[in-house]
Amino acid sequence: MKQYDPTTPDHYTNHLAEVNETNAVIATEDIYNKDGMLLVKKGLAIKPEVARRLLNHKLVKPLEVSVNVDDALYGKEIHRDIHQMFDRFEGLLEIHSSMRLEASLIEVCEKYGGYDLLVQKVTVLCKRLPKEYQKGLFCAWLSFAMATRLNLSLEEREAAFMAGLAHDAGMLHIDPQIVAKTGEYTPEEWRAMQSHTLIGDLFLSYIKEIPDVTRRAVKEHHERADGSGYPAGLFEDSLCIVGQVVAMADETYAICEKRRFNDKIHLGEVMPVFQIDSSFFPNQVHMALMSVLRQVNHAATQLAISGDLSSMSTQLMEKRQMLENVVESIYALRETLAEREHIKRMRVAKVKIDRLWTLVTRSGMLSAPLGRWLQHVVENQIIQTVSREIVEMDLMYQELQWQLKQLGRVLYLYLEEEKKITPELKKALTNSIKILDMGAPKSMEKQEKVA
Question: HEC profile for the chain?
């Protein structure tokens, strides 16, 4: 994908033309190209034919600063939509009430309404990418709740809300066919998707009053503490706390969506998964999330069970043994990686292995006693009495398996990029990749769709 240029009209121009069908999108000033040619007069609507004209020119200013969207989503509308979102996620309203967030939520929504360009982007996001808008509502609220629990400053709490709401708005500038794609991305498509973090940071730079931490949080919301994120692959000591709060909220939403069997989601159903993800975010951020979620009465939660428990239990025994063998085999690679920590991908891989090993040993999820307990449950056919524990184990094993595959991807990328590598190391990494992915990766760019 070519480098994003805010003064060159892109897919956002077409989005504005589509929004104009229901919400008038009007030029607030004369719009000129770089050569001084008048393209659109003040007061003219951005219709499809106008959009096509604009796409052929480089402008003096970014298009979004020269237009206004009628009936936009201001503070009252965002507040309303957040409360409607509570209906989909059982437990959120309970947390909201327990933490007494209502008054501060009203205030931060009002503050958001003062940033006209941000309001425009969020409105267009709602109209054109409604799924991303719904995710933005969730991330805005949860980021604000976590920032409150962390006792961050007022500016940082507001930044967490704004960044959570707009963190995926950069996707409005990416080809809609790529954004909507459900299969594997090509390398070019994956680079395009990654660019939404940088685009979001850049368009926020045109809002002079917005704190810099908001921009940084949007830019860093796909960074991970172990250095495996993007766009810069930063490690924990280089990341801002607000960006990691938004990242944790974004990951929480993704986990909830993967777990959803119906239109309702209870956060209690995904609590076991957070034990796995905890090692890839700063500890204080993970603890803040756990503190927020503990406001819910999880004892009353009934985990949704999909499929036959007896079959699930038998498969769990096999999966537990397989994961135990994989983790032990990969830990043996640690010394080899330690010798090459000066290479960034090798450092990322080592950090991943260290964190996964710590997590597995502390949690006991692959321990021999747990294995014996599971075997006892299956042999004595007492599965129904421990159905919750069985489902929780299944969730944790699924997430651990996914994290191990991500480690395989890091090693695979190193093999693809590194030209000077000994035959012995190449063989060791190739074997590890096969073990981690239960077969070699199909594509260098194999990735889950951006959450």
Answer: CCCCCCCCCCHHHHHHHHHCCCCCEEECCCEEECCCCEEECCCCECCHHHHHHHCCCCECCCHHHHEEECCCCCHHHHHHHHHHHCCCEECHHHHHHHCCCHHHHHHHHHHHCCCHHHHHHHHHHHHHCHHHHHHHHHHHHHHHHHHHHCCCCHHHHHHHHHHHHHCCHHHHHCCHHHHCCCCCCCHHHHHHHHCHHHHHHHHHCCCCCCCHHHHHHHHHCCCCCECCCCCCCCEHHHCCHHHHHHHHHHHHHHHHHHHCCCCCEEHHHHHHHHHHHHHHCCHHHHHHHHHHHCCCCHHHCCCCCCCCHHHHHHHHHHHHHHHHHHHHHHHCCHHHHHCCCCCHHHHHHHHHHHHHHHHHHHHCCCCHHHHHHHHHHHHCCCHHHHHHHHHHHHHHHHHHHHHHHHHHHHHHHHHHHCCCCCHHHHHHHHHHHHHHHCCCCCCCCCCCCCC
The C-alpha atoms of residue 256 and residue 89 are separated, in whole angstroms, by 9
Q: Is the pTM of this model over 0.85?
A: no
In our burial notation (b when 16+ CB lie closer than 10 A, e otherwise), range 413-450 reads bbbeeeeeeeeebeebbeebbebbbeeebeeebbeeeb
> Strand pairing of 265-266 and 89-90?
parallel
The lowest-confidence range among 148-152, 215-219, 220-224, 324-328 is 324-328
* Residues contacting residue 129 through CB under 8 Å, at least 6 positions apart: 168, 171, 172, 179
Task: Tell me how far apart the alpha carbons of residues 47 and 163 are, in angstroms, rounded to a whole number.
Answer: 30
Report d(CA 9, CA 7) in Å as an integer. Answer: 6
- Burial letters for 351-383: b for 16+ Cβ neighbours within 10 Å, e otherwise? bbbbbbbebbeebebbeeeeeeebeebbeeeeb
pLDDT tens digits, 390-438: 877 887 888 888 888 888 888 888 888 787 788 888 888 888 888 887 5
The token duo for 364 is 């006991």
Radius of gyration over every alpha carbon of the chain, rounded to an integer in angstroms: 24
Exposed, middle or buried: residue 307 (CB in 10 Å: 0-12, 13-18, 19+)?
A: exposed
Residues 6+ apart with CB under 8 A from 323: 366, 397, 400, 401, 404
Q: Which residues pair with 45 in a beta bridge?
A: 26
Whether the Cβ atoms of residue 220 and residue 244 lie closer than 8 Å to each other? yes
